[in-house]
Amino acid sequence: MTAAKEAGTTPFQIDLRRYLRELDENRDLTRLICEIADASKYIVNSIRTGDLGVAGTSNLYGEDQLALDVLSDRIIRKRLLHSGVVARVASEEISEIITISPDSRGKYSVAYDPLDGSSLVDVNLAVGTIVSIYEGDNLLQPGRNQVAALYILYGPRTTMMLSTGNGVHEFAMNQLMEYNLVQENLKLDPKGSIYSPGGQRNKYTPGTEKFVSHLEAKGSKLRYSGGLVPDINQILVKGKGVFLYPHLQDNPNGKLRVLYELNPMAYLVEQAGGAASTGKQRILDLQPQGIEDRAPVFIGCKEDVALAEKFIAEEAK
Ligand code: FDP
C-alpha cells in the first residue's frame, strides 16, 4: 500500500516531511532532503526577481558563472553546512570537494548542481537544481551507491522529483512554499514516443545518427528545451521518451557531468523502470576519476536505450 493510501488522505494533503516519515526513512536523511527543499524556496525567489548578470567568475569547466549560479550555490551550501548531517559536498560551481565534518559516521555526502541550465534564465525557460546523496564521505564512487537523488524544477510551477530507493515520487510547491505529494511511483513505458537530442547533429557518430533517424522514422516527437531538468522531467511525467547527449566526433565524453547530472538522473530514471547508459555501459556503474568527469548519455525508456546501445555497438564493428 502507498504511503498516501495508508494515511487515508488524498495525495495532495501529504507534505514532504510527513511522506518521508511514513516511508520510514532515516531521520537524518529526511532532515537533509527537507533542508534542500527549504533552500529551494530562496532559489525560486532569486530566479523570479534576482540579478540576471554574470558574476565575473568561472566554474571548474571554464564556464562563466551567473550571479544566480553563485547565489544558488551559496544558498544550498549554507543549508548543508548547518544541517549537522553532512560530511562532504561537491558543487558544480566550486572546484573541489569541501569537507564539512571530518567524522563521517552516520553522515551523508552530497553532490549538487545548484542551477542547472542557467543559460536559459535570461530567456525565461525552465531550470533546475539536481542533487545526489551518498552515505559516508566518498563522493567518487559509482552512482549505484546513491541512497537518494532528487531534482527541483523551477518552471511555471516548482516541483520536486525524489527517490530514496523506493520508487520515484513527484511533489509540488504550494502557496505556502511547502512541497506536497502529487504522484507516487512514476513508471516509464518500455518504449517512448518523444526524444530530446542534445549536441550538434552533424557531429553525431554513425550509431547515434542511426538511432535518432530510427526514432524519427517511427514518428517520435522532438522535445528539447536545452535544460536537462525540464527535459528529463517531461520524460518521467509523460512516462515515455529518451534524452541523449551523446559522444560527438570531436568530443568523446559529451557534455554532461557524471557526479552532478548523470548519476542523480540515472538513479531517478532507473527507479521509474527506465535505463541510463553511456551507449556502452550503465551510467550508475561508472567509477568516477574526478569531480569533473563527463560522459555521454542515453537515458529514458528501457527499449529505446537498449536500441541506442545496439546501434553504437554496431558502429564499432
Ligand atoms: P547549461 O549549459 O545551460 O547549464 O549541463 C548543462 C546543460 O545546460 C543542461 O542542462 C542541458 O541539457 C545541456 O547543458 C544543454 O547543452 P546544449 O546547449 O549543448 O544543448
Give your account of this protein's structure.
The chain is α+β, with helices and mostly antiparallel strands and 317 residues long. It has two domains: 3-183, 2-Layer Sandwich (Fructose-1,6-Bisphosphatase, Chain A, domain 1), CATH 3.30.540.10; 194-316, D-Maltodextrin-Binding Protein, domain 2 (3-Layer(aba) Sandwich), CATH 3.40.190.80. The chain contains eight helices and 15 strands. It has helices at 3-6, 16-22, 27-49, 67-83, 206-217, 228-238, 258-271, 302-315, and strands at 54-58, 64-66, 86-91, 98-99, 108-116, 127-135, 148-154, 158-163, 169-173, 179-183, 194-197, 221-222, 242-245, 275-277, 297-300. The strands form three sheets. An eight-stranded mixed beta sheet has the order 4-3-5-6-7-8-9-10, with helices on both faces. Helix 5 links the parallel strand 11 (194-197) and strand 12. The model has no long low-confidence stretch (mean pLDDT 93). Bound molecules: 2,6-di-O-phosphono-beta-D-fructofuranose (FDP). Residues 116-120, 198, 226-228, 255-256, 261 line the site of 2,6-di-O-phosphono-beta-D-fructofuranose. 2,6-di-O-phosphono-beta-D-fructofuranose is lined by residues 116-120, 198, 226-228, 255-256, 261.
